[in-house]
Each structure stands twice: as C-alpha cells, then as structure tokens.
C-alpha cells in the first residue's frame, strides 16, 4: 500500500512537458487541422506559427488564473488577428483555413469526450456540467473570431 502511495505521489510531483515542446506540438496540431480542412502548404506554415502563439497565450493566461472563457476569447482574437495579418500579404493565404486550424488548440475536445462518457455511464449531472463547460468554451471561441472578423469588415 505504501509503495502505491509513493508511486502516486511521484506521479503527482512529476514535471510537466517543456514549454517549447508544448508550443511545437500545439503548432503542429493546428497546422495539420489546416491541411485536413483543405489548406495549402503556405497555410500550413502560417497556421503552425499562429497556433504556437495561441498555445503560448493560453499557457500565459492560465498561469495568471484568467478564467477559461476570457482565455479562449483572447486566444481566438489573437488567432484571427494574426490570420488577417497573414492574409494581407501578397501571398495567397486562405484566411478561413488558417483560422480554423489556429483555433483548434482551444477547442474543448477532452471536455466534450468526458461529457459524453459521463452521460453514457449514467452520471447525468456531471455530463451536463461538462457539456455546459464545453458549450461555453465553444461560444467564447466563436465570439472572439466573430467579433474580430466583424471589426475587420468595419475597418
């Protein structure tokens, strides 16, 4: 029993992945989503950099104990602004594919999966609360992208 407790304590005290690794794989994840939705290699490169910045922003805001709603709004605004900047260059970037790929690190995939799992196993209250959390996160992302694109149209 003590051995199991020691192992659990060791796991609990284990360090997190290095920040550079998180940035790299966050960028890779977003960039491959961009390709999956029909983006070009140029879009892939832009999405890699933007997704990495979004992961960096989210990590920084998480350390500052910013609420997940505000963190996702800020992350999606940053992704959209950077995608707009890339699309203003003379190169042919697909702003829609870049935005889709760039916000993927923010999408609450684990929360949705856990909500479904809890609901299937009969824990409806937990499933409902996790579903609501996932919906709020998705709304925050949509709000950030939508407001930024609307401001781009105005200006």
What keyword list fits this structure?
mainly alpha; 155 residues; 81% helix; globular
What does this protein look like?
One of its GO terms (biological process) is succinate transport. One of its GO terms (cellular component) is plasma membrane. It is found in: Cell membrane. The chain crosses the membrane at residues 20-37, 44-62, 68-86, 128-149. Keywords: Cell membrane, Membrane, Transmembrane, Transmembrane helix. With 155 residues, the protein is mainly alpha-helical. It has one domain. It contains 7 helices and no strands. It has helices at 2-13, 19-36, 41-63, 68-87, 95-103, 109-120, 124-154. α3 runs parallel beside α5, α4 runs antiparallel to α5 and α4 (68-87) packs parallel to α7 (124-154). The termini are far apart.
Order of helices and strands: HHHHHHH
- Quickly give the structural class: mainly alpha
- Which percent bin holds the helix content? over 70%
Q: How many helices in DSSP terms? A: 7
GO molecular function: transmembrane transporter activity
Main location: membrane
GO cellular component, one term: plasma membrane
Protein name: Threonine/serine exporter-like N-terminal domain-containing protein
Summarize, please.
This protein is an all-alpha fold.
Topology of helices and strands:
Layout lengths: L1 H12 L5 H18 L4 H23 L4 H20 L7 H9 L5 H12 L3 H31 L1
């Amino acid at each position: 029993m003590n051995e199991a407790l020691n192992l659990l304590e060791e796991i609990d005290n284990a360090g997190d992945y290095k920040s550079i690794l998180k940035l790299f794989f966050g960028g890779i994840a977003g960039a491959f989503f961009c390709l999956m939705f029909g983006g070009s290699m140029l879009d892939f490169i832009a999405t890699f950099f933007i997704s990495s910045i979004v992961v960096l922003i989210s990590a920084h805001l998480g350390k500052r104990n910013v609420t997940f709603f505000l963190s996702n709004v800020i992350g999606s605004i940053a992704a959209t602004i950077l995608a707009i900047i890339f699309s203003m260059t003379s190169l042919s970037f697909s702003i829609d594919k870049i935005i889709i790929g760039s916000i993927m690190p923010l999408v609450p995939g684990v929360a949705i999966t856990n909500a479904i799992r809890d609901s299937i196993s009969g824990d409806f209250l937990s499933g409902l609360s996790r579903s609501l959390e996932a919906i709020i996160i998705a709304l925050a992302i949509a709000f950030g992208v939508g407001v930024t694109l609307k401001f781009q149209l105005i200006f």
